[in-house]
């Protein structure tokens, strides 16, 4: 069975082969789980987190879910090497907001939506809670493996602080409608103000997001249809077993053999239905959930680009206002270095009150703001470049890992399906004259 696996050399020499290497071919090398990939950065910092045991607390509209968050680290800034706390979704929202405000232009993944927009949606549905638990755990994995964010004060407060230190103002609490309206009213940077380098980054993120969205849509559709098929197969199995019991009671000459065939085929269907449930669980966790997480990473990247664009726009706005102020005094339509020199001379000679009530301190303050905004834009621009490099490195490994896992699941379950149907076929045709069977060659070797 292992010989059927296809090699995916993912570039990590720590991978352990799962089967003996065959002459002339590579041995299959399953990639490790995502958290281990991300911890392997050579820094010597150990930072493991888990989000487990979601528990409903309260009643009615005031009800909420509490998660057990466990943190293990060797960072000296933490008071203990192992921390266990209970956290609500709002605490994750607080952490997300703090990081966006204090660490602009880092790719902070978006959080999962608070719930759906369906008024009949049950936010305490077990499947929804598990999906969110997984997403929140991966959100923390991203943070603790980021070279800058993992040492941040907000993250430490999240792990070690009390609930009073993480209170959200009412206007910042997550809406029941999730992120449906979050982009309404958001400032848009005119294309004329965009730097070509960062415009290209934005296009890269948009195209990647579009492709991820399409892959997620069809993978999830396939998995959900497989789940429905598994349910139908289980019902069929039960029906076949019931019919086998009925045949046994008829007392006919071939009743015992016929009854056994129905029972065996029904048991096969039931076995495969259980196997499909396990396959669906694997596919959800290792493909659908991972694709959803990458879509949230894209949201974080878009937010970083938006902040940078707004900073650049603000810098240009300061320059324009300064230009207008100086043109009033100097009498020019644009501002160059020589215009600043003219302005300095004009200030020394005195400015007529009729033209403008602008002092030297006003101009210096305007210049300071322009310079600060330019420096901030440059700093955030460099941060974006570094984050894009990190993103591309992660994508190269993680998306190929996703593909490996997907194919691995199909191969594993393909063997189970084939072997189960073969055993069922042997039981069904047992004792039947092969010459009486249609398509004789198709059943050869099974009888």
UniProtKB/TrEMBL annotation:
Which GO cellular component terms, listed alphabetically, does the Swiss-Prot or TrEMBL entry include?
A: endosome
Region entry Disordered, spans: 1-35, 346-370
Question: What are the residue boundaries of the PX domain, all occurrences included?
Answer: 45-166
Q: Which InterPro entries match?
A: AH/BAR_dom_sf, PX_dom, PX_dom_sf, Vps5_C
Q: Which GO terms describe its molecular function?
A: phosphatidylinositol binding
Q: Which Gene3D superfamilies match?
A: Arfaptin homology (AH) domain/BAR domain, Phox-like domain
One Pfam family this sequence matches = Vps5
- Identify this protein by name: PX domain-containing protein
